[in-house]
Amino acid sequence: MTYVTGTALTLALLASLFLAALHLGFRAPRMRERGTPADLGLAYEAVRIPTASGKQLFAWWLPVSAADTSIIILHGWGGNAELMLPMAQPFQQAGINVLLIDARNHGNSDADTFSSLPRFAEDLDHAIDWLRQKHPVQSRRLALLGHSVGAGAALLSASRTRDITAVISISAFAHPEWMMKRYLQRFHLPDLVVGLVLNYVQWIIGHRFSDIAPLSTVCRIDCPILLVHGRADTTVPVEDARAIAAGCPESNITLLEIDEAEHDSVDKIEQHGFALVSFLQQQGFAGQTMRSCQHPRQ
Q1: For residue 293, with 0-12 CB atoms within 10 Å meaning exposed, 13-18 middle and 19 or more buried, which class applies?
Q2: Measured between alpha carbons, how far is 10 from 5 in angstroms, rounded to an integer?
Q3: Using H for helix, E for strand and C for coil, what is the string for 138-191?
Q4: Residues 115-166: pLDDT tens digits?
Q5: In which domain, by residue range, is 51 found?
Q6: Last residue of some domain: 185, 212, 239?
Q7: Cα(192)–Cα(200) distance, rounded to whole angstroms?
Q8: How far, in Å, CA of 74 to CA of 63, rounded?
Q9: Environment class of residue 261 by beta-carbon count within 10 Å: exposed (0-12), middle (13-18) or buried (19+)?
Q10: What is the average per-residue pLDDT within 277-286?
Q11: How many CB atoms lie within 10 A of CB 193?
């Protein structure tokens, strides 16, 4: 074996190991549900929702008698529907149907090759279709709520889905590139390597970060958006939410900043459940005037 050949093989091996480590590092941890909505005294039905690639999503349908408004709730990276139950309770108590879903590779949903913001949004798109087909009367008005990656997915879905009445985004990052650079800082990688990683991830997920970034998608949404963010969030700093709100000044965006709330502080956000419900009521939920995203900007 020549020196050149040996060097090439060594570099190829190192590259393979690096890519394997990269995939492992970005793999979403699976946390399965241990409880049910019944633990909070909520009536529910466990359902399976078909999604892309022949996979199925696990979900909880929390119906309210005679309600014609619904909200779909999507967790963040490594989360599940159970973790979002405290967020669902105030909506159901206000007379709004709730559908909590597990994205692929999360909770009790089917496994797939990888997870990404676009795939979260794809699962959300299929949940919207399922809800409108199975419960058309209950989904005459429909809102989306997502946390973290799920929030980015909710914004992406609303930017291309008709007839969404409102979107609630909790702890969304402004741009995937910003988020990944914050994550990669801990490894002290050269800028060249960071750039290669960013390009590789975009190639794997099949989307440019600039096309799926909340900074971009909010400007393609016509319905009202509520951005909720904790001021103590160290995973996604509150400056991301401020950048999203400032990046599209003509859009109908409201920013709610919560003191002492961190990235996963559902308990802190739950204390502001009235504000979230009030936001939906202003958009026509619970009988008030509705304003829908019937014609998203192209």
Answers
A1: buried
A2: 9
A3: CCCEEEEEEECHHHHHHHHHHCCCCCECEEEEECCCCCHHHHHHHHHHHHCCCH
A4: 999 999 999 999 999 999 999 999 999 999 999 999 999 999 999 987 899 9
A5: 35-175+214-287
A6: 212
A7: 12
A8: 17
A9: buried
A10: 91
A11: 12
Task: Supply angle C-alpha 156, 159, 162, rounded to 5.
Answer: 125
Same domain, 43 and 135: yes
Question: How far is the C-alpha of 291 from the C-alpha of 163, rounded, in Å?
Answer: 9
Q: Are 190 and 203 in contact (CB under 8 A)?
A: no
The answer to whether the CB of 80 falls within 8 A of the CB of 107 is yes
Q: Which amino acid, residue 209?
A: F
Mutual angle of helices 85-93 and 273-282, in 10-degree steps: 50
Q: Which two tokens stand for residue 80?
A: 């599940």
Query: In this structure, are 101 and 221 located in the same domain?
Result: yes
Whole-Å CA distances, 47 to 102, 191, 237: 11, 46, 35
- The residue ranking higher by pLDDT, 36 or 189, is 36
Q: Name the helix (H) or strand (E) containing 125.
A: helix 117-134
Quote the pLDDT of residue 8. 42
Judge residue 29's burial from the number of C-beta atoms within 10 Å of its C-beta, 0-12 exposed, 13-18 middle, 19 or more buried.
exposed
Strands in 97-101's sheet, in edge-to-edge order, are 45-50, 56-62, 97-101, 69-74, 141-147, 166-170, 225-230, 253-258
Whole-prediction pTM value?
A: 0.88
